[in-house]
Structure formats: C-alpha cells, structure tokens
C-alpha cells in the first residue's frame, strides 16, 4: 500500500512572536502514491522540520498536509520515520526495538508483533543479531534496525531524514541499493531528505530543491533513469542524464560546476 | 572430568591471587592489618583503659557473646528501615514522575522539595513524638522523611535528563504518554533513580538509628544506649560493627541490583 502526500502553503517559525525566525516559508508540493521523492538542500535548512511536520510530531503555523487518509493532525500509523541519528532505544535489544513500533499499534498480539519483527530483521540482513544491544552494532547495522522498525509497521508513507548521512561510503552505497530493492517490493511512498546530490539522483523519481532559511521549494527535477537501477550503479553514474542532472542541481544549490 | 574441575579450581585460585596482589586491593588490605595490629597491641601499651577503647579482640569476643541480643534488636531496626525505605523509594519515585508529567506540579512543589531537603529533618522528631507517640511510627516517619526528598530530587533529574529525541521517535510511531513512559522514561531515568536509592539506603538507615536513640524502646540504636548505660564499651563497639556491616550489605545489595537492571550491552550504563 502507498498513499499520496500534498503539502500546501506550509509555514513554520520558531522564536517569539515579536522576533520570529522563519523556518518554513510557503512550502508546497505533491507526491503521488508510490513515488520516491528526494528533497535536497543545504544542512540545517529546515528539511527536518518539514519531515517532522508531515510525521505529525511538529506543529505548523499555517498551511495543510493531506495524505490519502485526509489531513495530518498528529502522528498516524500510516506514516513512519527513519532518523539520521538512528534513535534506537539503547536499553532494548534489536528485536525489542523493532517490536516497539508494532506494540504501540492497537489490535496486535505480542506474538504476532514478534513474528513480524523477526521477518523484518531478516529482510534487512540482521538475522542472528536479534538479541544484540544497539551499543554492540556498527552505524550501518543500527540504521538497518531503524529501517526494519519503520517498515515493520507497514507504513504507506516512509519519511527518511538523511538516513545514510552518518555512514561510511561503502555502507551507504550498499544501503542505498537495498533501499531501492525494498521500495520496489513494498511500493511505499518515500520522502527522502538528503544533502547528497548523487544519492538523490540514484534513488529518486523526482528531486525537490529546497532553499535555506526560510526553506522554500526553489526547483524540481524529474529523474529519467530507467528502473530498476540496482546492479547498474556504475553505468547510471556514468550516464549523460546523471551528469546533466548533477550539474544542474549543483548550480541550483549554488555550488560551482566543475569542468 | 575430575582433572578439568581441578584445573578450573586452580584457575579460580590464581585469579583470586592476582586480584589480591593488585595494588588497589593490596595496599588498603595492608593498611587494615597495620591499623588492627596497632590498635590491638598499641592502645593497651599506651595505658588506655578497656572501657574507653576496647581492643579488636575484645570487641570480637563481645560480639560473639552478645550475638543473639544484637541480632534480635537488629531485626526490629531492619523492620522500621524497610517500611521507611520502601515508602521513600516508591513515594519519591511517584512524586518525581508526577512532577515530570505535569510541569505545574513541578513549578509549585520543587522549591519546597529543595528547601525540605536542606533542613535537618531530625529536628522534627519531637513533633512526630507529639503526633505519633514514642515508638515504631515516629521512627519510621523520621527514616522516611530524612530520605524522601533526596529520592524525589534524584528521580526528577533522571526524568528531566531524558533524551527528547527518543521521546520524539516514540511519538512518531503514534506513541502516547504511556508508551513514552514504558519505552523511554522508565529506562533513561534508571541510573539517576539508582543513585537516589543508594543515597536513601544510607539516609533511611541512619534515620532509624537516630530515631531509636531518641524514642526507641527496642532496636539497635536503643541497644547501644543500653550498653552505654552499663559502661559495656566493648559491646557498644560490637553493635556498631554489626550496624556497619549491615549497612554495607544493604548498600552492596542495591549496587548488585543496579548492575543487574541497568545493563544494556555495554555493561553498566553511564553511572551518575
């Protein structure tokens, strides 16, 4: 299952009424059901606030967020989030961490939750680590747990906040490819925030460029690269389309184009 | 089979030997032996009378002799301690939780908690005697109140030090306040809660002894005074020895429980 997301005229500012600091300024965009959309922008530009607004854990000042189920007024079972800093519970094992999200949902027995959790732990390649604590895992393994925890609740919309940003290059590459395979089989709508241009192009159907302070959408790019993309990463990254998109994105983000 | 068992015993013994020969264990041990020997032979040599300061061997002999009486009174003391201490830990934890949950409670109460923690509770004892009479209830009240506020303050700092990002994560899965408590607050506060319990073991136990000094008709504090009245200094020291050992055991028990409970992967979590 997947759902669409519409964000209309979203505004948000922090600070006092007299001296507000605008974070989101009239942000509007649409994501169709099952689409993989990347949001690219400089660090600390309000992308995280945008995702949290959609997740329903941050209040906005004005504007509207509507999913296939209706307006977002708070956290819902249809939306799950993957965080850059993993946010695993250090006092719980891998299994307990993945079970946590399932336990919160009503109408699910403990045994059923554990079964689902075990399946997802295996899917993300962590079979055998069920009883490990987060402190015993590498960064890449921690984010696999974060991914399993989010996917286990069977969300229609998956929000990912720079999920691979703190991982080393090889781990990041591998997880990007695995994410594409998961997305292919789950058909979830994915909103993926990153500041890594190549990552955005490799993964997404569409890329939204967001400006810094206050954040607003300044450009939009379609990624016309054939799917499935895994297994042909070198070919894709050497293609003219990839190069063209990369240069345009760099220019849009105010980075000088090489060559 | 037998051989491997023997080997295991040998490894164990050599482990104990290595542990004992470590400087941090060996030096305090040497210190202890020197002090005891100095006390045993030096003090009588200086002409100090036994009723002023009995020697270690006299204290030990007295302990063996008075053992049944000491244990009987110690049981009474432990009963009062148990009631006061459990009231402190449960009540203090719950009040701190309520203050963390409803900030209005914290705003209203916190200054008084801090003030109450700073005043010497023991001075209230005469008032408890008026209210609760001479005996068990007054002793429990002192033991409880002398430790209660430390428990509140420590537990509250535990709840307040909780990583808000984890709370947010649970909320993103539609977790309500109860889910947040059972998944995050309960655990994140534990190191602080145990720091509080460790302080409270000592405070509550001291509170009972102080109460027994003043209003007790039974209990180990009362027993010390009885020995004092009959100039049985060696028995007084034996009782003090029993109190010290009991308190060390209680403290050790809490530390052992903490090690068991507050351990997630990296051994013991950050201690406070």
Describe the structure in brief:
Chain A has 259 residues and is α/β, with parallel strands linked by helices. Chain A has 8 helices and 10 strands.
Average pLDDT rating of chain B: 90
For the CA atoms, what is the radius of gyration of chain A?
18 Å
| Global mean pLDDT of chain A | 90
CATH topology of the largest domain in chain B: MetI-like fold
CATH superfamily of the largest domain in chain A: P-loop containing nucleotide triphosphate hydrolases
Q: How would you sum up this structure, described in words?
A:
- The complex is a heterodimer of chains A (259) and B (272).
- Chain A has 259 residues and is α/β, with parallel strands linked by helices.
- Chain A has helices at 47-55, 94-104, 110-123, 139-152, 169-186, 197-203, 233-237, 240-252, and strands at 5-15, 20-31, 36-40, 62-67, 70-71, 79-82, 157-161, 189-194, 206-210, 217-222.
- In chain A, the strands form two sheets. A six-stranded mixed β-sheet of chain A has the order 6-7-8-3-9-10, with helices on both faces. A four-stranded antiparallel β-sheet of chain A has the order 2-1-4-5, covered by helices on one side.
- In chain A, strand 1 and strand 2 (20-31) form a beta hairpin.
- The longest helix of chain A has 18 residues, at 169-186.
- Chain A is globular and about 50 Å long.
- The N and C termini of chain A lie far apart (44 Å).
- Chain B has two domains: 1-48, no CATH class; 53-261, MetI-like fold (Orthogonal Bundle).
- Chain B has helices spanning 2-21, 23-45, 56-101, 103-118, 125-132, 136-160, 164-172, 177-188, 190-215, 220-229, 233-261.
- In chain B, helix 3 (56-101) runs antiparallel to helix 4 (103-118), helix 6 packs antiparallel against helix 9 and helix 7 packs antiparallel against helix 8 (177-188).
- The longest helix of chain B is centred in the first third of the chain and has 46 residues, at 56-101.
- The two termini of chain B are 45 Å apart.
